[in-house]
Amino acid sequence: MGRYVLKRVLLVVPTLLAIIFIVFGIMSLTPNNPAAVMLGPRASADAVAKLNSELGYDKPMLARYVDYVMNLARGDMGKSYNSRREVFKEITLRFPTTVKLATVSILVAVVIGVPLGVFAAVRQYSVFDVTGTAAAMFMASMPGFWFGMMAILLFSLKLGLLPSYGSKTPAHLILPSLTLAIPVAATIMRFTRTTMLETIRQDYVRTARAKGQTEGRVIINHALKNALLPVVTVAGMEFGWLLGGAVVIETLFSINGVGKLIIDSIHKKDVPQVTGCALFLAFFFMLVMLAVDILYAYIDPRIKARYQR
Amino acid sequence: MGHLLEIKGLRVEYRSDESIVKAVNGVSFSLDKGTVIGLVGETGAGKTTTALGIMRLLPAMTGRITGGEIMFKGEDLLKKPPGDMRAVRGAMISMIFQDPMTSLNPVVSVGDQIRESLEIHSVDSRSGSAMDAKVDELLELVNIPSRRKKEYPHQFSGGMRQRVGIAMALACEPELLIADEPTTALDVTIQAQVLELMRGLKDKLETSMIMITHDLGVVAEICDRVAIMYAGEVVEQGSVRDIFESERHHPYTEGLFGAIPSLAAASRRLAPIDGLMPDPTDLPIGCKFAERCKYREAVCGHTAPGADAEGHAIACHRFAGKRHGAD
Amino acid sequence: MKRNRASMVGLFIFSVILASAVLADFIVPMSAALDQNMSERYLPPSRPHPFGTDLYGRDIFARVVHGARSSLLLGMSAVAVGITIGGILGASAGYFGGAADAVISRVLDTIMCVPFMLLALAIVASLGTGIVNVLIALMLAMVPYYTRVIRSAILNIVGMDFIEAAKACGVPSYRIILRHVLPNAIGPVIVQATMSVGTMIISAAAMSFLGMGIQPPSPEWGSMLSEGKDYMLKYPHMVIFPGMAITLTALSVNLMGDGLRDALDPKLRD
Asked: Do C1 and B59 touch (CB under 8 A)?
């Protein structure tokens, strides 16, 4: 088991290199001369050439990639063209806000989604199941940012309960987290319901009943334990979805996180900053998926056994 | 007190949006302490449904018991509230399932799965260590080294998993064991092992058993009484001697024996029964076997033949009035 | 039966939206969606303007109806192209296995470490903003997900005995793929395609909301929300109706996808 974890952790390095390569590749798709774009149409040819060489754009992409990786190893992601500050600093300044937002949201989503999904499956076709799945379907079909707007209208404006903009106090994070969490909770609920419906039809659940086990324990000890395995993976994937959603939600609620930073940087054509933000979020997501995989191996004896020797 | 188990006129239906499947249609048989009855018939005859009906473990959304009584030690199981029925399941009546590959929980160790029965019914309010000792004992009883109790089902072969299933079923020393085709999913060589184990355990523990099978060889080896099922009914029942040695049989039983290759009559070709079992959503009014029967008479088309649940009973108009004949 | 009814509702809603996209010009003229009318700004819903008017006095109903065009076109074409690319990659990986599978799967696994929205944003950041670039970005960002679904659908089929039987009979590869593999693998692909039309429409709206997609004044649901955002506290009708349009469209395709999945995979019916 320890060896499995070690192997997975060591794999982080090549995966990260590959991610950097992909992000770099994407950022090189740009049909224009980056410095010309940054400086605008009226800049002199000299200024453009100077900035290009400052940014390293006069070198081929592979050489830039190698440079970037070397610098990154020292924690240097270059300078933001816009603020002229270190890209890395700009990100780490805002990263805690985004992590807080995403983590609270995924926790809320799981805490709401999993029990509701289990309950809907156990009472299949009941009023709760039918209305619950219909509501979840509706929630999952809403654009997160629109849901956020409706939440602002209701809670900030009509009820005057919660602040809607900024991120100063914990109360400021309630609406954005809920906005991010509810559609994800709906997805997790629907998924949990489906896997649970499959699981409660398994022979081993009938075996547990044949032993005289109570219905509650049959569900929790036997069905849920198996049904949760795929749910863990989906929750991990949804975390990535959440990070993407955070970009939009941070913009909507004017939260000063990495997501808002990336959007502002795209508008300002700040290539080093966009690259840094994308890498940072992708790396964070990769770590979450790694944690999920390791967790999975711990709870599923079939996977555990495969790596035991 | 009479019989340990007495089933009278059991009826079970499966309902879906589109149709009603009449899976068990008035099944009656009885079982005495320490004896084994075989339920024999082809797939879809209602054997497993009868067993799940006794356990009251029919699929909750679709399966319904629509009539009859299941008297166990003088009490009707169908009248018990769910809590009381749970106390019966696993403790007094337990079941071994057909497919050992799917009937064990993949994420719970086999030891814990066996121990679960003990915990639920807290036999003799055992202490934790006493329960551990019992788990070890049960595993050894089915010839599995007790040191393997911490392992998970995927680490065992099919035959071993079925033995774990047997240990689980025997954990609380039930008075009645229902074995639903316990050897069907296993390799032929393993089948013999498991069967031998079950026969040994039956003699040792004096457990009564309902052995569901479509294998007449299994019946001959382990059963005292046999009930032949067809389209949700018992068409013939009697002692093993009645079934294997008597001259008089239900036409379906005759067909069943005709469809089994025999070494003694190696030259004869197999004689399969023509036709198929009737559609369980649309059963005929008269004898359910009439359409495939070579002795068919006019009466078979409109009147269903009846039979007792004692002695050698044949549900066929040919034997009407002489059902209790001493063979 | 109940699920079936839900997917019929989805089909109905989708048909209405599709019809209004196709017949937009007959329902309400494009000029109502584009012409500014400063004397009729911020009007709440009323008989001449069922959804009210926006900050330039344009009829929101007309903008929603005409906006259906770009949203549906964008959503469906992104899915169509994305699934074709994903189909080719996934089918080659699943059917031929070996090195092809290893390379394709590894590369796509790595790409999927970058969350979908982030990937699409990075592509837009690089290509530049605009509707066509948003379309390309969403399409490319979705390819790994399609590839994965199609690869596993193909793998399920390829492992089956009847494919081995066909191979043993000497049936050529292309014929096995066309006659045996594809028809059997198409189910999950159709479900995935249907559902992802909703994802695409929502993501495209989000892009427009962030100012990456369609630029004003073209009517588009996402950019309408973006415009209405600053006025929503005073004039909520400016954001309620475009948002409803997106939600209903996504809901209708999700309902249809759900119904299709249930129809193709009956194992959850009791």
From this structure: no
Residue A121 Cα, gap to closest chain B Cα (Å)? 12
- The reported pLDDT for the residue numbered B125 is 65
pLDDT-based confidence at residue B325 (cuts at 50, 70, 90) = very low
Cα distances from B291 to residues B22, B279, B287, in angstroms, run: 18, 12, 8
Q: Compute the distance between CA of residue A84 and CA of residue B78 in angstroms, rounded to an integer.
A: 80
CB contact under 8 A, B61 and A214: no
> Chain A: nearest CA to C165, how far in angstroms?
31
Edge-to-edge strands, sheet with B176-180: B93-96, B176-180, B208-213, B36-40, B225-230, B233-239, B313-314
User: Can you state the percent helix, strand and coil of chain C, rounding each to 5?
Assistant: 75, 0, 20
- Does A261 have pLDDT greater than 80? yes
Angle subtended by helix axes C60-96 and C182-209, to nearest 10: 140
- Tell me whether C161 touches chain B (CB under 8 Å): no
Residues 1-30, chain C, touching B (beta carbon < 8 A): 1
Q: Which residues pair with C59 in a beta bridge?
A: C53
Q: How far is CA A207 from CA A202, A295, B103, B113, B214, in A?
A: 9, 27, 6, 10, 22
d(CA A293, CA C82): 28
Q: Please, what is the average pLDDT of chain C?
A: 86
**CA nearest neighbour of B9 among B38, B29, B31:** B29
- How far does A286 lie from chain C, in Å, by closest CA? 6
Nearest CA in chain C to B14: C270
Q: Which residues of B touch C (CB under 8 A)?
A: 16-17, 59, 61-62
From the CA of B40, how many Å to the nearest CA of chain A? Answer: 22
Class of domain C5-28+50-268: mainly alpha
- Residues from chain B that touch A209, judged by Cβ atoms under 8 A, are 57, 89
Contacts of A142 in chain C (CB under 8 A): 243, 246-247, 250
pLDDT (tens digit per residue) in B207-235:
899 999 988 888 888 899 999 999 999 99
What count of other Cβ atoms lies within 10 Å of the Cβ of residue B100? 26
Give the A-side interface with B, CB within 8 Å: 124-125, 202-204, 206-214, 221-222, 225-226, 229, 299-302, 305
Q: What is the pLDDT of residues A230-256, one digit of tens each?
A: 899 899 888 988 888 889 999 998 899
Domain ranges of chain C: 5-28+50-268
Q: Of A186, B207, A247, A128, whose CA–CA distance to C198 is shortest?
A: A186
Rounded CA separation B224/B30 (Å): 12
pLDDT of residue A309: 44
Question: Which residue of C106, C117, C148 to mutate against A (max A Cβ within 10 Å)?
Answer: C117
CA–CA separation, B161 and B108 (whole Å)? 13
Q: Which of B323, B317, B327 is nearest to B293 (CA)?
A: B317
Contact A144, C247 (CB under 8 A): no
What's the gap in Å between the CA of B176 and the closest CA on chain A? 13
Task: ipTM value, please give it.
Answer: 0.87
Amino acid letter for position A250: E
8 Å CB contact of A225 and B108: yes
User: How many Å apart are CA C74 and CA C206, to the nearest integer?
Assistant: 13
C-alpha span between C137 and C145 (Å, rounded): 14
Q: What is the pLDDT of residues B235-287, one digit of tens each?
A: 999 999 988 888 888 989 888 887 766 666 555 566 677 788 888 888 888 88
Render A53-65 in DSSP notation, one character per residue: HHHTTTS-HHHHH
Section B2-8 average pLDDT: 90
The owner of tokens 């469209």 is C249
Closest-CA residue to B22 (of B54, B66, B53): B66
Helices (H), A161-270: 170-199, 203-210, 215-217, 225-252, 258-267
